[in-house]
Every structure is written in C-alpha cells, then in structure tokens.
Recover the amino acids of this structure.
C-alpha cells in the first residue's frame, strides 16, 4: 500500500506524471497493479513475462474470448483475478485499482483500449505495431504526451543486445553515412494458403459460445464471424492486421529507424507484388521507402522484401544464412532453415553490416573486414533490464522506456504507409511535414481508415 508520504514523492522521471492527478505515484518498493487486455496467444506470453519480473501484480484480466482454449492458461494462472469480456467495463469498474495496462489484442483494436487507459492516467504497454492506421498512431502519440503516462511498444529487441550495440557503434562513428538498408522476412505466412482471386470476405459461421464477437470487432464495421478472423488469422486481412511488414518490421528496422533518425519517408514505391488483391496481403512484396537527408546524414533508401519467392540479393561476403537462435519463430510455425534469416543488410559509404531480427547483433561483412575493424569497435554495455522490466520500472519512475510512443510512433507510421502502398499497389509520394500524400487522394483516406462504429467514435476524441 502506498502511504500519503510516498504517494507524493517525486519518483517519476517523466515530469508530466506528477501533473496528472489520475496517475498514482508508485514507490520503488511497490508493485505496479497491472490489468491485461487480451490474454491469449502472444498476449499470454507477454503477461507471463511481465509477471515474471516480480514488479507487478496482475489485478484484472480482459478478453473477448474468455474460456476459449487459448485463454485458459492465463485464467488458470490467476484464478482469483476479476475477469471481463470488455475493457470498457473493466476500466469503469476497476479503474481506481489499476496503475497500468498491457494491450495484446489484434492490431486494429490497440487504439481504443490504449486511448481510454491513457485518458484515465494509466501507463500502457502495447504490442507492435502501435495501431492499425497512421491517424491512430498520431492520436496515440499526442495522447501519451497530453496525459503524461509511461508508454512502451512491445518490440522487445529494443531492450536487448542489438539496441545497445547499434547505439554504441553509431556514437563511435562505426555506423555512419548509411545510404541503403535491405530488410527481409521471407517465411510462409498464414495468407499464403488463401486464393488471391477470392471475390468476397469469408462467409458467416456460428460464433463460439465463449466469444463476444461484437466487442471483438471494436471500432470496425460489423461483419459476420468467421474462424479466419481470429487467433492470429486477423494478421491476414487489411481490415484487421498489418501483414508481414507490421508484424516483423518493428523487430527488424527498429534500431535503424531510431538511431539513424529516419522519421517519415517522402516516397513509398511498390517495386514488386505477387498475389495482389483487395482483401488480404500479397503473397510477396518488395516495397521501397525513400527517406530524405537528416542533419549531417545522407538520404537513405529502405527496401523491404517479404514472401517465400522474393529473397533479396545478398552482397559478396555475406556469409552463412543459418538460423540465429536469438530470433523467435513466427507465431504460426518455425523459421524455415533453407531460407534467409529475417533481418537486414545495412549499406554505408564505407562499411557493410548484416543483422538479424529482435535482439540479434550486427556484424561487419565480409569477415576479413570485421577482423580488421575489431580493434576500433567500442565496448557495448549490457542491458540493465529487459523490455518488460524496463516498462514496469519506468512506471515506478526508475527508468525511461526505450520504445515509448514518441520513438515507436513514427516507426509504426512507416509501416502504415507501406501497407497503404501494398493495398493500392502504387507508387506514392508523401509530405512528412503536413503528413499527407501528394499524388493519391485515395491513399489519403487510408491514412484515417474507415469510420468507426457510432459507439466507438468517442475514443477518437479522447
């Protein structure tokens, strides 16, 4: 229990926290009271990681499919914790008992839960990507600043070795004058089994007795239930997910985007697509993002490759493509060892680097160059905390989050722009100052997305 004295102590690194009367000031010796919105599949793993830190109490569980097989494990781990189907009800009834929330719902439903929690002074850990549309990310960044809460996006590699290595190498001048980055994720995806000639979305099926389907749909327009919309299948559809780019981009491009200060691109070009259709993501995509010069850094082009038939060309001296044990498998299976590791190749004016995903460190290529450079490489500090501990310690004012919305937001917006290019299969020019497309009005409507249903409009005004 926080006493009156400790509640007023200036623990918070974020100065705005002290100005938000809704946000409880948590002493370092206290635990964060955490409510969980989404408790199955990946969300369940996040909850276990947060709880394992020893810095939080799980005080509420919320899922639209309570009692389904994928939610049973978390329900059984915390059998005495109150359970809700609707996060709105949970926050209304238990708001005073909650310090922070973790949001592990599908991409399209991150926004309303996050905005409501922040407006109530709750700190937020939200899975990547931050939200489903460019505008939603914009509103979330503004909300975090307005409400002065701690935020963290769940690209956990941002608290692992690659983060600290990239930062140290950039500061030491090892990584400089980067002109191009090749990023790639070439494993099978769920939608590769779909027919790209489909004429409509899947037909209606009986709703499982455990599922509150209307609440699952959230702000999206009503559609009859089909099993291909839930339990990770939502990643397949433009209406609900962000495809391979939104799923893996935040684990591959996060450090490059932050430390090279890339911001938003001026061009997004579809260079190749296979299986383009209006319902789900292409089987394969090559997307080019052009970023302008920044400070003393030259323009940079990122080229993204996804699809099993769409591997990038590798530079001489790349070396092996064996699996990196530090890269987690996709949620629907194992990384295929005969293909290329998910990762990136970074081209600077003097050096080439290759790297994997998540926390995988960079290496200089070819190997002979790496050996010659070894005496010049700076010492890389160890991470003081993993991504989950970092968030909870930040809630207590002891650390700053490494992937707060002001850092994760522009990165997530890059993915939103890429998804729009995929959806339209078009070359797009973008004004990063006014944040509009300059050559495609239809693309501008997709920055905002479809109008939310009436009962969900209020979340866009918080």
């Amino acid at each position: 229990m926080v006493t009156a004295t400790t509640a007023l102590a200036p623990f918070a690194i974020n100065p705005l926290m002290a100005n938000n009367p809704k946000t409880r000031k948590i002493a370092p010796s206290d635990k964060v009271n955490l409510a969980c919105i989404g408790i199955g599949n990946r969300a369940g793993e996040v909850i276990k990681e947060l709880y394992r830190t020893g810095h939080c109490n799980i005080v509420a569980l919320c899922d639209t499919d309570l009692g389904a097989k994928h939610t049973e494990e978390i329900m059984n781990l915390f059998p005495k914790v109150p359970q809700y189907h609707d996060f709105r009800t949970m926050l209304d009834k238990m708001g005073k008992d909650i310090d922070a929330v973790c949001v592990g719902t599908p991409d399209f439903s991150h926004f309303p839960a996050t905005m409501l929690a922040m407006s109530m002074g709750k700190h937020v850990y939200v899975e990547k990507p931050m939200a489903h549309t460019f505008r939603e990310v914009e509103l979330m960044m503004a909300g975090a600043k307005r409400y002065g809460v701690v935020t963290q996006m769940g690209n956990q590699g941002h608290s692992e070795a690659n983060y600290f290595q990239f930062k140290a190498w950039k500061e030491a001048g090892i990584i400089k004058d980067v002109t191009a980055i090749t990023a790639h994720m070439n494993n099978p995806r769920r939608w590769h089994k779909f027919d790209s000639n489909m004429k409509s979305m899947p037909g209606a099926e009986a709703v499982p007795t455990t599922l509150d389907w209307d609440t699952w749909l959230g702000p999206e327009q009503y559609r009859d239930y089909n099993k291909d919309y839930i339990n990770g299948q939502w990643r397949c559809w433009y209406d609900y997910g962000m495809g391979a780019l939104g799923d893996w981009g935040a684990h591959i491009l996060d450090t490059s985007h932050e430390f090279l200060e890339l911001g938003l691109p001026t061009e997004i070009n579809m260079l190749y697509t296979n299986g383009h259709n209006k319902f789900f993501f292409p089987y394969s995509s090559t997307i080019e993002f052009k970023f302008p010069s920044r400070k003393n850094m030259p323009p940079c082009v990122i080229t993204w490759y996804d699809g099993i038939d769409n591997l990038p060309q590798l530079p001489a001296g790349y070396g092996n493509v064996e699996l990196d044990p530090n890269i987690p498998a996709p949620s629907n299976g194992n990384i295929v060892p005969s293909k290329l590791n998910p990762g990136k190749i970074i081209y600077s004016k003097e050096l080439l680097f290759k790297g994997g995903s998540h926390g995988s460190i960079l290496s200089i290529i070819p190997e002979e160059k790496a050996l010659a450079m070894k005496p010049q490489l700076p010492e890389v500090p160890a991470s003081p905390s993993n991504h989950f501990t970092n968030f909870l310690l930040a809630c207590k004012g002891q650390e700053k989050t490494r992937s707060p919305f002001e850092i994760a937001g522009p990165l997530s917006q890059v993915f939103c722009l890429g998804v729009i290019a995929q959806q339209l299969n078009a070359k797009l020019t973008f004004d990063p100052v006014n944040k509009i497309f300059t050559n495609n009005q239809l693309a501008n409507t997709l920055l905002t997305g479809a109008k939310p249903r009436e009962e969900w409009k209020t979340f866009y005004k918080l």
Q: What stands out?
A: The chain has two domains: 4-158+392-404, 161-378+412-448. Residues 405-424 form the longest helix (20 residues). The two ends are 30 Å apart (CA to CA).
